[in-house]
C-alpha cells in the first residue's frame, strides 16, 4: 500500500463534500429538467444504473458530489445498451483513455483531442458510418 498526497482544490466525489449534498440537491429543484429524447439512455455515475425517474436521477446526481463515480459500471452499462463509441465532454482525456483501455475495440476520444467543433462532428460522422 502506498499513500501519497494528491494536489487537488476540491475533494470531489468524497465524503468530505457530504455536507454540500442537501444544498446542491435543493438547487437542482430550480433546474428545468426535460426528459431525454426517445432512444437516449442516461446512466447514474454512482452505480451505472439507468436513470428512469427525474427525481431519483436528481437525487443520484446530488449524491455524486460526495460518492465515488463508478466509471467502470457506467462504461459496462453503455456497452450493454449498445454503445459503439465514447466521446468525453469534460476537460482532459482521462475518461476517454479509461474507456479505450476497457473496450479497445470501441473508438474513444475526448473533445480535447480536436481543434474545432467541425473536427468533432467529422469524427462522429465517421464513427456512425462504421
UniProtKB/TrEMBL annotation:
Signal peptide: none annotated. GO terms for molecular function: [acyl-carrier-protein] S-malonyltransferase activity. GO terms for cellular component: cytosol. The lineage of its organism: Bacteria, Pseudomonadati, Pseudomonadota, Betaproteobacteria, Burkholderiales. It comes from Burkholderia territorii. InterPro entries: Ac_transferase_dom_sf, Acyl_Trfase/lysoPLipase, Mal-CoA-ACP_Trans/PKS_FabD. PANTHER family: BLL0263 PROTEIN, MALONYL-COA-ACYL CARRIER PROTEIN TRANSACYLASE, MITOCHONDRIAL. This is Malonate decarboxylase subunit epsilon. It comes from the Bacteria. One of its GO terms (biological process) is fatty acid biosynthetic process.
Amino acid at each position: 500500500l502506498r499513500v501519497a498526497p494528491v494536489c487537488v482544490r476540491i475533494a470531489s466525489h468524497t465524503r468530505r463534500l457530504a455536507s454540500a449534498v442537501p444544498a446542491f440537491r435543493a438547487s437542482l429543484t430550480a433546474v428545468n429538467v426535460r426528459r431525454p429524447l426517445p432512444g437516449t439512455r442516461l446512466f447514474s455515475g454512482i452505480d451505472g444504473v439507468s436513470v428512469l425517474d427525474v427525481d431519483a436521477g436528481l437525487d443520484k446526481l446530488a449524491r455524486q458530489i460526495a460518492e465515488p463515480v463508478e466509471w467502470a459500471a457506467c462504461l459496462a452499462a453503455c456497452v450493454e445498451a449498445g454503445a459503439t463509441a465514447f466521446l468525453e465532454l469534460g476537460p482532459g482525456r482521462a475518461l476517454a483513455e479509461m474507456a479505450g483501455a476497457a473496450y479497445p475495440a470501441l473508438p474513444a476520444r475526448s473533445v480535447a483531442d480536436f481543434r474545432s467543433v467541425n473536427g468533432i462532428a467529422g469524427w462522429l460522422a465517421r464513427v456512425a458510418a462504421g
